[in-house]
C-alpha cells in the first residue's frame, strides 16, 4: 500500500474491498457492489473459482504458471521501464525486486516440484493441470488488457 501511495495510485477501492470482506461480504459480490473494473472482477473470480473448486493439482498449476513462473519476468520489464523513465519509487522498486527474487528462487521452484509430485505419472492429472493453467493465464490476459485500456 505504501508503494501505491508513493506512486500516487488511488487505493480507496482496495480499502473499501478489504472493509467489505471484513464485514463478511463475499469477494465477488464486494467487487461488483464497489464497481471494480470488469477485468478485475473476472480475474479475482477466476482465481477464487480455481482456489475453491479445483483439485490440488489444478490449484498448483494455476498458481505456478499464472503467477510464480510468470510474474518475475513481467515485474522485471516493469522495473526496467520505471527506471528508464526516471520514476524513482523506492518502495515499489523494493517490492518488485523482492517479489521477483522470492518467486524466481523459492516459490517458483517449489511450486514446480509440487506440481510434478502431485501429477506423478498420471496423464489425466497433467491434462487437468494444463487446462487450469490455461484458464489462469487467460484470466491474467483479460486483467492486463483491462489495465491497458484503463490507461
UniProtKB/TrEMBL annotation:
UniProt name for this protein: Iron-containing redox enzyme family protein
Pfam families, per database record: DUF3050
Family annotation (SUPFAM superfamilies): Heme oxygenase-like (SSF48613)
Domain of life: Eukaryota
Taxonomic path: Eukaryota, Viridiplantae, Chlorophyta, core chlorophytes, Trebouxiophyceae
Gene3D superfamilies for the chain: Heme oxygenase-like
Organism: Coccomyxa viridis
Amino acid at each position: 500500500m505504501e508503494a501505491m501511495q508513493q506512486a500516487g495510485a488511488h487505493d480507496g477501492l482496495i480499502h473499501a474491498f478489504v472493509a467489505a470482506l471484513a464485514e463478511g461480504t463475499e469477494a465477488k459480490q464486494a467487487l461488483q457492489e464497489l464497481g471494480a473494473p470488469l477485468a478485475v472482477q473476472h480475474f479475482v473470480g477466476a482465481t477464487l473459482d480455481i482456489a475453491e473448486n479445483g483439485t490440488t493439482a489444478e490449484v498448483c498449476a494455476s498458481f505456478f504458471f499464472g503467477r510464480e513462473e510468470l510474474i518475475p519476468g513481467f515485474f522485471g520489464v516493469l522495473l526496467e521501464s520505471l527506471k528508464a523513465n526516471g520514476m524513482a519509487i523506492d518502495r515499489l522498486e523494493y517490492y518488485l525486486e523482492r517479489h521477483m527474487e522470492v518467486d524466481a528462487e523459492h516459490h517458483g521452484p517449489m511450486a514446480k516440484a509440487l506440481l510434478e509430485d502431485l501429477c506423478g505419472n498420471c496423464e489425466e492429472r497433467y491434462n487437468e493441470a494444463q487446462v487450469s493453467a490455461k484458464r489462469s493465464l487467460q484470466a491474467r490476459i483479460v486483467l492486463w488488457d483491462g489495465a491497458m485500456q484503463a490507461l
